[in-house]
């Protein structure tokens, strides 16, 4: 049995993410990935069963990296508002700092063939977010709507603004980030 060469695996992952982001899933081939990674196609099959297995594992790796960043320093004992702000701020930071991974995950989430990959494995990575929203509903802070709807109304606008920053058409700074988080908060909270 061959030993795992982490440098080769990382080169394969980085090459895959770059190629998928450049040309999409359909045009991405093992031979293109191998060439860009500087390995043989046979080497890829040492670490991955096939293209789909490789893409699924890379997607899971990206989701885990996102979860780790989002919840780094997250305190379940903080107020709902503080956790909400913390989560969204870290989410934006992840997108900006990990453009390639984020765009790769966007490709997956927009693909009808691939969108259910690792769904069970990845949903548990974000349990604290769903708990936060559930708690907000129980405390009558958040609107009595489906949790997924509340999460989407909070997260999608932040992701879109971060994507605009990646394109150079928007710039997050302390003031604009605070304003965007406030607008997300206002969208889902009960007005008293």
UniProtKB/TrEMBL annotation:
It comes from the Bacteria. Keywords: DNA-binding. It holds the Pfam family TetR_HI_0893_C. Residues 29-48 bind DNA. Residues 6-66 form the HTH tetR-type domain. InterPro entries: DNA-bd_HTH_TetR-type_CS, Homeodomain-like_sf, HTH-type_Tx_Regulator, HTH_TetR, TetR-like_HI_0893_C. PANTHER family: ACREF/ENVCD OPERON REPRESSOR-RELATED, ACREF_ENVCD OPERON REPRESSOR-RELATED. This is TetR/AcrR family transcriptional regulator. It comes from Alicyclobacillus fodiniaquatilis.
């Amino acid at each position: 049995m061959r030993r795992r060469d982490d440098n080769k695996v990382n080169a394969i992952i980085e090459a895959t993410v770059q190629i998928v982001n450049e040309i999409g899933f359909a045009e991405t081939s093992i031979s293109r990935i191998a060439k860009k990674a500087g390995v043989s196609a046979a080497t890829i099959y040492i670490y991955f069963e096939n293209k789909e297995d490789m893409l699924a594992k890379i997607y899971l790796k990206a989701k885990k990296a996102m979860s780790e960043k989002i919840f780094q320093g997250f305190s379940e004992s903080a107020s709902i508002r503080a956790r909400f702000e913390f989560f969204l701020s870290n989410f934006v930071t992840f997108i900006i700092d990990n453009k390639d991974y984020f765009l790769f995950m966007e490709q997956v989430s927009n693909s009808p063939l691939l969108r259910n990959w690792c769904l069970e494995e990845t949903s548990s990575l974000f349990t604290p977010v769903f708990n936060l929203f559930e708690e907000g509903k129980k405390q009558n802070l958040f609107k009595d709507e489906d949790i997924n709807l509340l999460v989407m109304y909070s997260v999608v606008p932040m992701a879109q603004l971060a994507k605009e920053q990646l394109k150079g058409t928007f710039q997050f700074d302390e003031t604009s980030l605070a304003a965007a988080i406030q607008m997300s908060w206002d969208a889902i909270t009960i007005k008293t």
